[in-house]
Structure formats: structure tokens, C-alpha cells
Amino acid sequence: MFTWVQKFADWFVYDLLKIAKASKLGDALNFFVFDTIKIFILLLMIIYAITFIRSFFPPEKTRKILAEKKGSTFIGHILAALLGIVTPFCSCSAVPLFIGFVEAGVPLGVTFSYLIAAPMVNEVALGLLYGLFGLRVALIYIISGEIIAIVSGIIIGKLGLEKYVEDYVYEIKVNADDVEIPNPTLNERLRDSWEFTKDLIKKIYLYVLIGIAIGGFMHGWIPTGALAKYAGKDNPFAVFVGVAFGIPLYSNAAGVIPLVSELTRAGVAMGTALSFMMAVTALSVPEMILLRRVLKPKLLAIFIAIVGIGIVFTGYLFNMIL
Asked: In terms of pTM, does the model score above 0.90?
């Protein structure tokens, strides 16, 4: 599918710019040109398709579905984790979604299953992983993320931590049945999906370019296997290092995946690379700052600890099986 992109990158770098083949600069720039075109083509197709699909699952509908299943908590956790994949989510929406779920009577643990799955199992990342690494890695990503979300939500629910939610959240009373669920026409869904795709690309393109640029630098100057000594399967602390580096980063999965691709090429184990990406998307500092508005420090710390342990465990597990 992308053969023509590689031919264009070769022509642009080696023929037009006259950069020597097999040179570090040539390899890095060739990688940057090829991956930039390839990833943005994938982003346009994936975001548009998934945005259209998830137009059938607006946040209001998600809240109503989970509120109706609050009597069956285990099923609620599974539904919450699955809905987290297809419903719109960003860090700025974490607080209003959390408040809305509490208002609707959704159990705290089920709410957290959704809040963990939504950023961790990013639909754009899923499509890019499939396009770059294949079906096996994409399935590993989605299954591990869903398991972490479900188990973490169950643990938080069993601990009875409702008292560590900020008091004002419980003082807001809204009847979920009165919330109108939008029902746009097919043409409106198609048009809105395209508008959303354009807006999202505008918001994330810089992160994607930075990720590709870092990947290009690694491709040109860091030989294959160079990082294996520090982040390969044989280093018992590799996953911890990946998670520790991922948490402070402010990015999104689309921007991190080009870097993940180069990390694996340079010798980083796949489980470590996936843990790094999950830490960036599920435990980002901006999201934690926003969640602090509705969670008291103890509950926020428990949330970070449980999700962090789940990500680390997943990283080691897949380092062993891949």
C-alpha cells in the first residue's frame, strides 16, 4: 500500500536533495518523510472511520447505558471498559464525565473502568498499531488495556473509596433520564466526522511530527540493538524505566506510536514499549491534574498506583510471551 510513499521518500531525499544513501542524515530524513506521509494517511482514514462509528455512542448514551446496568456491577465494568474504546474522550473531558457518571448513580469502580479504558485503549492508536505492527500487537494492546481497566475498576470498587471523592460532586443532582441523546442523520454523521477529523489532526499534528522526528533521529544515529542493553528483555527494570519516562510526557498515542516503532527497532522489548505508551496515555500529568478536581489526594494516589501496577505487569507479561 505504501510502496509509492517509499519511492517518493527515496526520490525526495536521495535524488532531489542529493543526500548520500546509507548516510546517517539520509536514513533519518528518509524515515521522516516516509513515516510522516504514511502515518498521516493512516490517521485520516482511521480517525474518520472511527469517529463515524462512535457517533452512535455519545457520552450521554454511554452514561445512560452504564446507569441502567448499575445493578449488575461486573457486567458494568465490562461494558464501561468496552465503551471506553468507542466513546469520545480527552483529558479535558475526564472531569465532566466523572461527574456525569456519579450523578447517574454509576458505581465508582465502574466509573473508573471507563476512565481508565478511554485514554488507555485509544482507537486511533489501535488503528495505527495495526497498520504499523500488525494484528497480533494490536490485539495485545486492546486486550491488555481492557483487562487493566476492568481489574482496576473492580479493585477500586471493592475498596469502598466513595468518601475520597470531592464532596461537591455528590451535591450535584441531575436526572440522567432527562438528558437528551442526540440522533443525527447519516449525512450529519458523515459531515461531523469529517469536521472532527480535520480538527483533531490540527490539534495533534505537532505531537505526531515531533514523535516522527525523534524516531527519525533514532533511525539515523542509533543502531539496531543499541537500546537493548538498557530496555531489552534481559533488563529486569526495563518496564519500570519505560513507565517512569512515560508518565511525565504530555502527548497522545498518535504522537507516541512513531517513537514506539523506533524504540522496538532499536532493541527495546515490545512489552516495555507498550507500557511506555500506556503510561503516556493513561497516567499523563495533565489528566491527573484535572482528576484532582474531583478526587481527593488519597483516591488519586490509589488510582495511579493500581493503574501503574497493571501497566508494569502487562509490560513484563508481554515481554515474556512476545
From this structure: no
